[in-house]
Amino acid sequence: MTTNSANSVSRKARWITLVAAGAAVASLTIGALPASAQSLQGPASAAGASTVLGHRPSVDEEALAKAMAPGGVAAGTMVRISGPGVRWTKATGPLSPDPAASFRIGSMTKMFTSTVVLQLVAEGRFTLDTPIREVLPETVPAHWKPITIGQLLSHTSGLGLPCEPLADGLGLTPERVVHAWTGCAAAPESPVTAQQYNGANYFLLGLAIEKVTGRTYAEEVQRRIARPLGLRHTYVPQAGDSSMPTPSLDAPSPKEPWAWAEGGMISNAPDMERFTRALLGGRLLPPAQQSRLFAVPPLAKASKQPYSAGGLAFHRLSDGTEVWGKTGSMAQYTSGVFGTADGRRVVTYSFLPGPAATKDAVIGHVTGIVEAAL
């Protein structure tokens, strides 16, 4: 989830859309890739220097050249691809050409949150069937039908829109954000009939992480993921911290919304590649929890933007290859990371949508990049 706007919009509208709706460009919502290959648009435009080993081209450089050329859909694009025998990286337009440039990863943060949650499940701190109210009694009203940890992970909690206004991200706390969804809202419909992407789910999970570990969410991400994997450019900034490391893909914003455990992290393409390869390749989770990453909840099968039981977006390429990962937007940039199920081939991208970019054009840009890369 996270909001991205190429035009100026009010902070209040931006924040509410950010938490409630998922990655968006202006008023466009792009929570995941399309559910079927038939919905793909053709690759849209910039050849990059590549080193390809083996008997076949590992990336479609012609398609990437078209997709990455600055134009109406994107003013600039960064793409990094790695896998057996391939290392390919390129940035076009105003984006930094430095392959280690940091950027705000938006809802890709949810991959870190779900990983920590599944680790805690493996440790017996709670189960996927544990009602969140057992962990956080003051959040979900007692008269609601229980919402479980697993439902929050898979966006099947039934939580809808907030019932309280949320102004600027600065000065907010996770508790205030959660209260906007649970303090005055009617109970979610029961039974839940659709998978509904909602950042509030991951604010609740972030609070659950802090409650059962006794440490902050940022500390747990560093202790469990960033330090073990050597992710030196990956961290959770504090609320109100609008600074960006040097080099950075995008310029700092004086007042960025703060999305914490559901969309607030900063990283770079090499770190996201390493994390995604480790996650999909089974290095971060025991087998029982690893299987949740690729399990498809029944409610997801009818969704146009499906998510796995572990919160990953998934997509089948035109050649039948299944890819898994997450999109996210923040600070006017739309980004994402996707990999093959074994984690051996990974693509990370970030781009600055043009002011006239439509929803379909942006989806086509993303799917064109992923098709050409994987």
Q: Would you spell out the secondary-structure blueprint of this structure?
A:
Layout: E1 3-4, H1 11-21, E2 24-25, E3 28-29, E4 50-52, H2 61-68, E5 74-83, E6 86-91, E7 102-104, H3 109-122, H4 132-135, H5 149-153, H6 174-182, H7 199-213, H8 217-229, H9 260-263, E8 266-268, H10 269-280, H11 287-294, E9 313-316, E10 322-330, E11 333-340, E12 346-353, H12 359-373
Parallel strand pairs: 1-2
Antiparallel strand pairs: 2-3, 4-6, 5-6, 5-12, 7-8, 9-10, 10-11, 11-12
Structure characteristics:
disordered N terminus, three-stranded mixed sheet, 32% helix, seven-stranded antiparallel sheet, Beta-lactamase, alpha+beta, 12 helices, single chain, 374 residues
What does this structure look like?
The chain is of the alpha+beta class. It has a single domain, classed as DD-peptidase/beta-lactamase superfamily (Beta-lactamase), CATH 3.40.710. 32% of the residues lie in helices and 16% in strands. The protein has a 7-stranded antiparallel sheet, sandwiched between helices. A 3-stranded mixed sheet has the order 1-2-3. Strands 7-8 form a two-stranded antiparallel ribbon. It is globular, with a radius of gyration of 19 Å. The model is unreliable at 1-57 (pLDDT under 50).
State the gist of this model.
The chain contains twelve helices and twelve strands. The model is unreliable at 1-57 (pLDDT under 50). The chain is globular, with a radius of gyration of 19 Å.
CATH topology, by name, is Beta-lactamase
> What structural class do the secondary elements suggest?
alpha+beta
CATH H-level superfamily title: DD-peptidase/beta-lactamase superfamily
Question: What profile does the largest beta sheet have?
Answer: 7 strands, antiparallel
Beta-strand portion reads 15-25%
> What is the number of helices?
12
DSSP, total strands: 12
What's the architecture, going by CATH?
3-Layer(aba) Sandwich
Q: How many domains comprise the coordinates?
A: 1
Biggest sheet: strand arrangement: 4-6-5-12-11-10-9
Provide the helix percentage: 25-40%
CATH class: Alpha Beta
Low-pLDDT windows of residues: 1-57
**How far is it from the N-terminal to the C-terminal residue, by CA?**
24 Å
What is the residue-mean pLDDT, rounded to a whole number? 83
Compressed to H and E, one letter per element, the order equals EHEEEHEEEHHHHHHHEHHEEEEH
